[in-house]
Amino acid sequence: MSAFATERAVAIDAVLRASKICQKVFNNLITKDTIIKGDKTPVTIADFSAQAVINTILYKSFPNDPIVGEENSKKMQGDSEEKKEMRNKILSLANSVLDTHLNEKELLDSIDRGNCSGAHMKVRMWTVDPVDGTKGFIRGGNYAVGISLIIDGEVHLSVIGCPNFLVNFKEPESKKGCLFIAVKGQEALICESFVAKNPSLAKIASILGITKEPLHIDSNMCKYCAVARGGADIYLRLHPIAIDFEEKIWDHAPGYLLIKEAGGMVADMDNKPFRFYFRKQLKTNRGIVVASPKIYEQVVCAVQQTITKEI
After folding, report:
1. Which long-range CB contacts under 8 A does 30-33 form with residues at least 24 apart?
2. pLDDT tens digits for 21-46?
């Protein structure tokens, strides 16, 4: 049996079941009114339901492994009718894909199981991002469900589910839905953002001689997947959203390993490797640069040239 075969199978199962939940939420709870009003309730329900399912499956197979996730159950607790209705929806969705049904207490406990601080530098732990790419999810665009296994600060396994990811970018009418799997040392396997424009990207593209329009994809993880699959050449995340903003490990650990095992290169804007053992944040890194080995050095130079001028 190959290394991490059991972990791989469990993670795939968890991501597929969580992805089914997200699709159910989109099909049944998101309407045009949701988008117009900016109602985040469906996203909240998808987040909690998917995290509950993933945490339950991981805990059943690996009860001693800490889990680092984004959500906790505080938003769900309370005696108001709104909170009760939310809990009922989340419980129903989670149980619709689980083999053994949860009660309300078990549901809350499963979500809070993802509250590990990530402070242990020498530990085996899982990261969970139940819905990466909120805007894409709401409008039926790209989003991802991602899990990674980190041991002693190194990512050893990642599974990323992208339910709306085109199988072929060149054919808009092609089938949707891809599963990306990477195990350290075993190469990557692929199973068949519309955001405010960053002026730095245009400058970097000019330096590199890139004239094609950028590929617009929601979700950080889906962008990693696009480069890993060869659908894009570069993924850049240059400026923090706020001065005190720090990237979260669950947003990047799965994609980091996928790129490495696909033969690509990834580091921060200062060309420093990612460090996944400083709590929940990438505290020693700023920005993200992803590219193929052939052009990576050129991209890093262009990024540093642009950022230095702006500073």
Report:
1. 30/138, 30/140
2. 999 998 887 665 454 446 677 788 89
The confidence score (pLDDT) of residue 33 equals 46
| Same domain (yes/no): 127, 28 | yes
**Domain of 18: which CATH number?**
3.30.540.10
Active-site option among 39, 65, 109, 134: 134
Of 140, 159, 191, the position where a domain reaches its end is 191
Whether 41 is a known active-site residue: answer: no
pTM of the model: 0.82
Q: Does one domain contain both 166 and 35?
A: yes
3-state secondary structure (DSSP) of residue 5: helix
Out of 47, 218, 233, 268, the active site residue is 47
Domain boundary among 191, 210, 243: 191
pLDDT at 302 over 60: yes
Q: Where in the sequence is the domain holding 41, given as residue range(s)? A: 5-191
Q: What is the pLDDT of residues 93-108, one digit of tens each?
A: 999 999 999 999 999 9
